[in-house]
UniProtKB/TrEMBL annotation:
The keyword Cytoplasm applies. This is Chaperone protein HtpG. It comes from Kitasatospora misakiensis. Residues 27-184 form the Histidine kinase/HSP90-like ATPase domain. The gene is htpG. SUPFAM superfamilies: ATPase domain of HSP90 chaperone/DNA topoisomerase II/histidine kinase (SSF55874), HSP90 C-terminal domain (SSF110942), Ribosomal protein S5 domain 2-like (SSF54211). It is found in: Cytoplasm. Belongs to the heat shock protein 90 family. Its main location: cytoplasm.
């Protein structure tokens, strides 16, 4: 046999290995995701290379990944028939961390006391292959680069050195054999030799990898969906069905629905399907759905956002808050970005400019899809608004970038039609001559709003008033200054007396001063008597049957909001 060479890991690699082994990740299962992702990349590379360069005599007829368990030896092997590595590749790629800034980053990680911070720092570069040392005390890698005859064995216990040896007769591709540490529940080490565990991890993290991930079917289980490969039954563990990666024209409605149901656990078809691909500097695919029915926990504190992040078909995380604002938490789906580290952390995603750009684009797409439904199918839109209107209104407070788009979507109860809500656009089209503001009144229920004394003059004079009784209405209506150039005006606040004659109208002036004469004694007396409760008592033209009503200052918070604040102890 050829001689064995012992080499040292680069200093940074040693430090990184120590960090990985001493559990940076609480979730050890991800080692398999990393190795499968490397194998998948290697298969992609071999196919590309053989298509681009016909001198590469590679067999690409059955590219796949195989997982092999040896219970007696306690090893798990991840094998691919992809591009493989030369001896020099091994030294450069596995023995060295080529990424710039690694040293500085490692310093910071060592200094940071808390594990979560360290984890987010390490997410800035992929620990990839090294994650194998979380679960294995020795790793043996055998590989042969396509187009060459020389194979190499690489082996290390992850301490300070690794061995290299030339080996003959290896197939093209790479096999990574993990000599597993003993099972230790406390350390998060599951039994990675158990078929069910392997299947579970593959399903969770690698289901949409586009190459088959195969494993010998266990005899006892009489597994379904097996194919006969020689004498041993072989099972393909992943579905490979990454619908989002296929062109829209090649996906049927039924496939979208099935996929949606699989990721959402919903039994209905989605109300909206949004499928897009972005090319250019930051490539990604997105497949998003608006459900037909709101989940029961839409307003609970624990509700998660429904968008999953993938990187090149490898599952990275659920509930990716960096990709969807809170008010679109009901949107389900998948975003698959091509140029992110598999270990990217939530903190880093939140601050990544490209991710922020993706999010802006996705929000526009979702709002655009809802707008299209609003324009084309009033009935379907009405149902959608019933389900998600209350959450969408949160966007009027949260998302100043899309205020206009959201204002166009909003659908609100109004005095115009007791049965059907109106859009602001339709309200504006119905405004009376000389009316410049959009009138609304907020309250706890629709009945209290409708029966409020504030309504009297508006009803009597035929002005339409929006009847707002969602708690969130208080907040957005107060913040949004105008729609289409028309102020939003609460009829419970400030000077909104109707038909108040303009100053300088002599006849009206004398009429007003005559009326004020009648009350000259009463008003100051009332103001003094009610000094604790009110700032001022005024004559009003806004009442028709009630004797008096309480009006807030233009910049006061409304009574309902005041109640809400008091209830929450603010
Ligand atoms: P990353 O995948 O982010 O580059 P890894 O630590 O996972 O980082 O892998 C380092 C490099 O080693 C890969 O970029 C690749 O060039 C090489 N490599 C790892 N596994 C394989 C494999 N199965 N086949 C071919 N090359 C591999
Ligand atoms: Mg990798």
């Amino acid at each position: 046999a050829s001689s064995v060479e012992t080499l040292e890991f680069q200093a940074e690699t040693r430090q990184l290995l120590r960090l990985v082994i001493h559990s940076i990740y609480s979730n050890k299962d991800i080692f398999l995701r990393e190795l499968i992702s490397n194998a998948s990349d290697a298969l992609d590379k071999l196919r590309l290379e053989s298509l681009a360069d016909s001198t590469v005599q590679a067999d690409i007829s059955d590219l796949h990944i195989a997982l092999e368990v040896d219970r007696d030896a306690r090893t798990l092997t991840v094998r691919d028939n992809g591009i493989g590595m030369s001896r020099d590749d091994l030294v450069d790629l596995i023995g060295t961390i080529a990424k710039s800034g690694t040293a500085g980053l490692l310093e910071k990680i060592k200094e940071s006391q808390d594990a979560a911070a360290a984890q987010s720092l390490i997410g800035q570069f992929g620990v990839g292959f090294y994650s194998a040392f979380m679960v294995a005390d020795k790793v043996t890698l055998r590989t042969r680069r396509a187009g060459t005859d020389a194979g190499t064995r690489w082996e290390s216990d992850g301490e300070g050195t690794y061995e290299l040896q030339a080996v003959d007769g290896l197939p093209v591709g790479t096999s990574v054999t993990l000599h597993l540490k003993p099972v230790d529940g406390e350390d998060g080490l599951a039994d990675y030799l158990a078929g069910w565990k392997i299947r579970q991890i593959v399903k969770q993290y690698s289901d949409f990898i586009r190459w088959p991930i195969r494993m010998a079917a266990e005899q006892t289980e009489g597994a379904t969906g097996t194919e006969n490969d020689g004498d041993a039954a072989v099972e393909t563990l992943n579905s490979m069905k990454a619908l989002w990666a296929r062109p829209r024209s090649e996906v049927t409605e039924a496939e979208y629905t099935e996929f949606y149901q699989q990721i959402s656990h919903d039994w209905l078809a989605p109300a909206e399907t949004i499928h897009m691909r972005a090319e250019g500097t930051f490539e990604y695919e997105a497949l998003l759905f608006v459900p037909a029915q709101a989940p029961f926990d839409l307003f609970s504190r624990e509700t998660k956002r429904g968008v999953q992040l993938y990187v090149k078909r490898v599952f990275i995380m659920d509930d990716c808050e960096a990709l969807m604002p809170n008010y679109l938490r009901f949107v389900k789906g998948v975003v698959d970005a091509h140029d992110l580290s598999l270990n990217i952390s939530r903190e880093i995603l939140q601050h990544d400019r490209q991710i922020q750009a993706v999010r802006r684009r996705l929000v526009k797409k979702v709002l655009g899809a809802i707008k299209t439904t609003q324009a084309n199918d009033a009935e379907r839109y009405g149902k959608l608004w019933d389900q998600f209107g209350r959450v969408l209104k949160e966007g009027l407070v949260e998302d100043t970038d899309n205020t206009q788009a959201l204002l166009e979507l909003v659908s609100l109860p109004s005095t115009h039609d007791a049965e059907r809500p109106t859009t602001l656009r339709a309200y504006v089209e119905r405004m009376k001559d000389g009316q410049d503001a959009i009138y609304y009144l907020t309250g706890e229920t629709r009945a209290t709003v409708e029966n409020s004394p504030h309504m009297e003059a508006f009803t009597a004079k035929g002005y339409e008033v929006l009847l707002l009784s969602d708690p969130i209405d208080e907040i957005w209506a107060d913040r949004i200054p105008a729609f289409d150039g028309h102020r939003l005006q609460s009829i419970a606040k400030g000077q909104v007396d109707l038909d108040e004659p303009a100053d300088g109208d002599q006849e009206a002036d004398s009429e007003r001063s005559k009326r004020e004469q009648d009350f000259v004694a009463l008003l100051p007396w009332l103001t003094t008597a009610l000094a604790e409760q009110v700032k001022q008592v005024r004559l009003s033209s806004r009442l028709t049957t009630s004797a008096a009503c309480i009006v807030g200052d233009a910049d006061d918070i409304s009574p309902t909001l005041e109640k809400m604040f008091r209830a929450t102890g603010q």
